[in-house]
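Hi R.,

Here are the chain sequences for the assembly we discussed:
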Amino acid sequence: MFTSTMAGYDRAITVFSPDGKLFQVEYAVSAVKRAPPTIGIKTKEGVALIAKKRMLSKLMEAESVEKVFRIDEHIGAAMAGLYGDARVLVNRAREESQSNRLSFKEPITTLLLTRRLSNLIQLFTQNAGVRPFGVILLIGGIDDSGPSLYMTHPSGAYYGYKAVAVGAESDRINEVLEKKYREDLSLDEAIKLGLNCLKEVDKEELTSENVEIGLIRIKDKKFKKLGREEIGKYLKMVS
Amino acid sequence: MFTSTMAGYDRAITVFSPDGKLFQVEYAVSAVKRAPPTIGIKTKEGVALIAKKRMLSKLMEAESVEKVFRIDEHIGAAMAGLYGDARVLVNRAREESQSNRLSFKEPITTLLLTRRLSNLIQLFTQNAGVRPFGVILLIGGIDDSGPSLYMTHPSGAYYGYKAVAVGAESDRINEVLEKKYREDLSLDEAIKLGLNCLKEVDKEELTSENVEIGLIRIKDKKFKKLGREEIGKYLKMVS
Amino acid sequence: MFTSTMAGYDRAITVFSPDGKLFQVEYAVSAVKRAPPTIGIKTKEGVALIAKKRMLSKLMEAESVEKVFRIDEHIGAAMAGLYGDARVLVNRAREESQSNRLSFKEPITTLLLTRRLSNLIQLFTQNAGVRPFGVILLIGGIDDSGPSLYMTHPSGAYYGYKAVAVGAESDRINEVLEKKYREDLSLDEAIKLGLNCLKEVDKEELTSENVEIGLIRIKDKKFKKLGREEIGKYLKMVS
Amino acid sequence: MFTSTMAGYDRAITVFSPDGKLFQVEYAVSAVKRAPPTIGIKTKEGVALIAKKRMLSKLMEAESVEKVFRIDEHIGAAMAGLYGDARVLVNRAREESQSNRLSFKEPITTLLLTRRLSNLIQLFTQNAGVRPFGVILLIGGIDDSGPSLYMTHPSGAYYGYKAVAVGAESDRINEVLEKKYREDLSLDEAIKLGLNCLKEVDKEELTSENVEIGLIRIKDKKFKKLGREEIGKYLKMVS
Amino acid sequence: MFTSTMAGYDRAITVFSPDGKLFQVEYAVSAVKRAPPTIGIKTKEGVALIAKKRMLSKLMEAESVEKVFRIDEHIGAAMAGLYGDARVLVNRAREESQSNRLSFKEPITTLLLTRRLSNLIQLFTQNAGVRPFGVILLIGGIDDSGPSLYMTHPSGAYYGYKAVAVGAESDRINEVLEKKYREDLSLDEAIKLGLNCLKEVDKEELTSENVEIGLIRIKDKKFKKLGREEIGKYLKMVS
Amino acid sequence: MFTSTMAGYDRAITVFSPDGKLFQVEYAVSAVKRAPPTIGIKTKEGVALIAKKRMLSKLMEAESVEKVFRIDEHIGAAMAGLYGDARVLVNRAREESQSNRLSFKEPITTLLLTRRLSNLIQLFTQNAGVRPFGVILLIGGIDDSGPSLYMTHPSGAYYGYKAVAVGAESDRINEVLEKKYREDLSLDEAIKLGLNCLKEVDKEELTSENVEIGLIRIKDKKFKKLGREEIGKYLKMVS
Amino acid sequence: MFTSTMAGYDRAITVFSPDGKLFQVEYAVSAVKRAPPTIGIKTKEGVALIAKKRMLSKLMEAESVEKVFRIDEHIGAAMAGLYGDARVLVNRAREESQSNRLSFKEPITTLLLTRRLSNLIQLFTQNAGVRPFGVILLIGGIDDSGPSLYMTHPSGAYYGYKAVAVGAESDRINEVLEKKYREDLSLDEAIKLGLNCLKEVDKEELTSENVEIGLIRIKDKKFKKLGREEIGKYLKMVS
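And here is the predicted structure of the full complex:
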């Protein structure tokens, strides 16, 4: 990598390196890796999004920092990376979702929403004067095709997952997920699996303050974020 | 940091460094660190904003330099960093606030105002041809959710706090705040805590000229800036 | 190449090198070479598009990553390279196709569709502020002129083929194709030829998850993507 | 040349070198020189355009790559250089031609068409943000002034010729043309002369697949491209 | 400073240095320091603006170079720095002032005018394609809040002063002002103080040609520029 | 010159060198010097424009390359430099001329036409994103003020001449012209003088193919280009 | 100067050097210094503008190169520097002048005209994508305030003068002017003084061809340019 970066191929989003890389996109992924991890797990019962938050100070208000967002009644998202960049995408997601309801009188599918966001993200990898988004979203929702979980990538690609982690230590968490994930997990077990992963990679104790959980169950198809007490109960189970 | 900055990753807001940093945003934070400290403290009784001002000359008119601003009847803000940049944000804050009253016939919430400003700040971190805002705002207000205190960050992120300091020596002040802050502080005690913090980090004597204080009490929900005499009384209490 | 790249001729799409090369276009081809291979084969019975997908994790949902796309009833496409870039072209292809039906009340020909996409691709090689598309599409369809198979090139050129591979190891696969291709192949034999090529160049076992197949037969002129079972049957035949 | 290119005068179309050169235009000519040769010959009977094509693979469909184009009933063109760039000019040529028929109810003259295209080409040599066209067109047509043959140059100049070759080995072919060309050649003799030139400079055997011929005869004033059989007959004559 | 400037942080207004400086703004201040000094003094009787002019030649017409400007009946300004830049701000000041009279049927306050100009100045510190204003204005006026004196800063900040000097030797003059300024100065004494300061820092003799004086008295609230004779009288008093 | 060019002052039209030069304009003049010479001579009888053309090949059609242009009935122009750039100016000249006839019902004067073109040329020396015109026009015409001959300069200046040469060897030709020119030359003698100058500086034999002559006589005030026979006659006279 | 220029502070108009200089403006002044001198002298009788022209060739038509321009009946201007740049300003001056007559039914004052032009000139020192004007105008006129003489500066400043020279050797001429200028000069004496200055600094003999004189007398307030005979008479007086 030495030569290529020295030669400046990584200074602009509109420049490929000789081996066909877009370094600025790869560096945007590095920005995500600097942030605390976020995990998404899909089961037959629904989708859970679990995010670890970094408390900058004991006096910070945990609730003020959101990593898990309700996009529409039936879709939620969790982010890792730059908060400001995430908000741009979340705002756009809500607009796309509303606009679908207005135009077609029906909720947007999780896949279509993911694709629309990814189209926006791709634009920021091919045009001068901007930088790629330094954020990854995990988008979970339930529609006619059942529960689904997608990951947006700073390159404009997106991928569906049964379970996936992004952010710091995501490689280690993903290894654990690959070992422990079972198709027949209940959503509660999925949440506990996610929390156990977070515990394993981070010395800082998990609390109902530095953990955020959002979930959507197939039985009511409503995405909701858990309150402190609920999070506390899950934490107790994994302690 | 040596290699990265030498390689020029810190010359444009639209360029990530290989380790995923936006150096220009970090340097904007440095611009804030060069300015005298500003403190925000939230208690059950309301929110206090306390700012230290640097007098460039004995003949400077202290009142002419504002670091604490009334945004709307129920919201105020205090800044640290570049005055000119702060004014852009304060002007925008007032417009957002008025526009909310016009459109929805009700005062804007402190959180929504903070988010709107942060959306603007984020734009200045992703588009070529501009630089990030070299200023941090502490926004304090009271709405249906009670008192709240937010800090905008040059990256476009924002954070809620019980108490926080920004600007020169903010690390030392924040340590003190973490030790001394109690949920059951009265607003008067909060102001005294803030002034004591300022005293500790700065040799220059605090006067009713080089200190600005703004506060909003839950009982009347009106943000007001203290006059010289009032500030003088508080200063006497901590001397 | 050393001198030319050192001299910076490869930093912008609007700059020729002294020997008349557009390096950024060549690097876009490198981006395609980094991706798993995609193969198109045309026979008298129709056209088959076969794509190998890289599974980033065992928990990735294979179906979520599309390399083969239905463009219109009578045309499909397969891609190798950047997913986000491919989607831009696929979206445009669908629009061109619909617009042809609306304006002329008849399906677009495969050649005209290819030419329209290539015109767009060329624009991204002559104007500042963008980069070339880091993707190659194989476009297969059936119209009045019979079955046809085209490859778009990041330079804005396009080529018709009887059979062709793009992406990683495409040189080796193309050698095999040149040896084994016969005009009188049945479409089933063509698919088996393609799968055998993929097997030869990649250690990873082919599964109905990491292979995508799309085909259009002259008898019904409908492009369809094969389901897992169908793919499984073909894989069994070549194992 | 060393010093000038080292000093960067060849990095932008809007920069002259100290000795008054536009290097980017000269490099665009180099791009043309990388492509297989194209020949135009004008006789009293009409104009012939003969182009050699490079087959990238035995499985490439020769017909899919066009180097000779019908522009209007009475005008054709042959290209050497970048296919995508050629298509931009050919599309424009067809538009200019149609627009002339619409506005003036008569076919455009070969000279006027050449001049219009060259005006477009010149624009790409004087404005920032683009690169010159990496292609040369030979334009042959018949109008009231009889048969004519023009060559467009990447600088925006154009030249009329009795016979001319562009692309790889064009210097050697032009030498032969200068020796062998006679005013009283029949069009058939002209085609044979062109094919003999191609044979001389290229080891690869000429076939009805890798040669394209377009011609327009004074007797019917209709530009047409020869089919494989017709090309085959001419090839037999020169073998 | 060596490293930072060598590294190019001072080449564009849109780039912060690692320690949070906007070098181009600091260099704009240097442009002001190259110009002869300008002094503003506020007393209970009103405001005086005193400017030293550099005579480029004995044949220059002193009156043709203005450093003190009437903005509106009740406000004046004095500048140090680039004349052309000053004129842009003075023109804008007059427009803002007129526009306030038209919209609100009342004179603009000195503070509001200063803020409006500073907003313009700030824009030139955050957007690419421009440079900061290389000028400082001292703005003096009288409104309902009494006499006031403001200084605009190239960063977009502004400060109120009792007395202040800008331009060459302003540090030395400001030291003298701090020593000699008394709240109960008469406006005449203020002018004499200003002239004495100018005498002290400049060997060149003060004349009614190279000194400009503007003043506004609380008793009539009309800003006026002194004529040569009046200036001559003051000069006699301090000789 | 070494230091200045090394320092990059010659890379952009919008940059002066320390000694006040616009190098890009000077290099545009170099582009003209690379082209075969063009001569203009004014006598009491009218104006003659004589241009030498470089034949790229024996098979080039001499007529296809124009260096002398009829602008309007009473004005002609001859160029040296880049053909494409010349055409831009000639097209504009014809438009200006027509537009004058339309607006004022009278022919444009030679001086006004020259000034309008030079205004366009100047724009290309002061604005970024373009390069200067690499061409010089000699404009000859007859209007109420009699015959006149102007030269446009790439800097946007223009000059009137009795006789002048531009292009290759123009210094030597101008020396000859200064010696041999007499006010009382007939137009025929002027043409012979011009042809003799061309003969002297160029080894290549002058022919009716590689020489172009345009002239306008005061007796009919119609600019016309000479045909081959006419040119042949003049060539015979000077052989 | 070495370090600053080496560091590139002089490459763009939008960049200050560390010591507050705009090098591009200073280099524009160098462009003026390369041109032959132009002198303006104001007396009680009126204003005289005297310009030396450089004859590029004995065959150049002296009249075709104008350095002195009539702007309006009562105002004239003389230039030194780039002819093309001067024409832009002169054209603008005439428009401003006409527009004043149309809007206010009265002639524009010399000062207002000068200020308007200087506002335009200033724009070219603060915005990217252009260069400063490489020209200085001396503007002489008579209005209600009597005769006046102004000099525009490439920085956007302007200065009034009793007498001033710009261009080559202007420093030496200005020294002479300072010595010899008297308030009670007649306009004839002023012209002779100017011509004597030109003689002193330039070896080339002054002739009625290479000198231009424009003047406006208070008695008729009409700016006129002297004809050759009139200039000849003055030249005889100073020989």
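Residues 20-54+62-238 of chain F form a domain with the Glutamine Phosphoribosylpyrophosphate, subunit 1, domain 1 fold (CATH 3.60.20.10). The mean pLDDT of chain F is 94.

Let me know if anything looks off.

Best,
T.
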